[in-house]
């Protein structure tokens, strides 16, 4: 049997297998082995270590241990595209296959330094920063000796329209001074979080609204930053990283902490968000596969026989299983297409396929996981399985990196731009029909 026929490659379509390099095949297999043997069995232990008194906002000892194992095995930073010198050499398409496997455990991505927001921040720093900035800020992230956060969302504006972001960045002498409120940057309570990449408004009166904002690196120990609280997501605090709410009051950072230059934030943001959206989607497909497997196990559980039948023997549940299989497989194709498009044509050209993925996959995942919870009955809503946490993550991704309604608007707007060419094509159909009717002596009819 070929290696490509093994469990690690079971769900990968033939056209993707044909594009996998020997390096990618090796990495996919190693990621699969690591998740199956190191991560999944350790889920209860990881939870127990977080729950220890006084340790909730400290990275678990087991996480440090697994990260070192993954690093030694060459599984660190797999997401970084091959056109970066720091990359391990995988394309977006190849990494997508790894990301799906990582998604089987919520935190498995972190063991391999492939977790959000690190992935986006590392790629951002690798793509846009100076050599000096890379040495100071990027290298510790690549080495796994520090973590970072992304500070963009604000409570006082509609952040789905990022041009409204109002946190002020003012230049004073040799410093930038920052004032404003932010949401969702990872918690400062975890001391491994060393800096934020903050997006703020540096030129509010610029007639070009896309040139009003800048990005700066803000060390977490800078005076003036106050963490108001941790924000729970559907009741989960996501310790030990969490989602903080912050106030920036006269926070001063050196001018050298600007990324790319003043007014370049949107250029940077678009370069950052494309790949990250794909990573989220592939991990969600991995979560769906895990949830689906749990549902299959439930369907054949001999202890659960309502009305004398296994749960999987009811026609409605057989149809449920079939529908879930179809939806997971079609979603995977959409995301793999987006990853391949990015590889061939670049992130900008792939924005339509990226938007498709961002719309379809989180919605699909919430629906699939919800059905799996239904098959489990009351236990499906409790810590008896990972299903509630999976569902919460999927629901979160519908909003993370931009709400799906904004992406629908983009897709719909782009499609409407194509309407005129179809109108022209239909006018040509009508012209040819009229000519043919006259030639054949038939009555010409029109509904125009």
From TrEMBL:
GO terms for biological process: fatty acid beta-oxidation using acyl-CoA dehydrogenase. The keyword Oxidoreductase applies. GO terms for molecular function: acyl-CoA dehydrogenase activity; flavin adenine dinucleotide binding. It holds the Pfam family Acyl-CoA_dh_N. Keywords: FAD, Flavoprotein, Oxidoreductase. Transmembrane segments: none annotated. It comes from the Eukaryota. This is Acyl-CoA dehydrogenase family member 10.
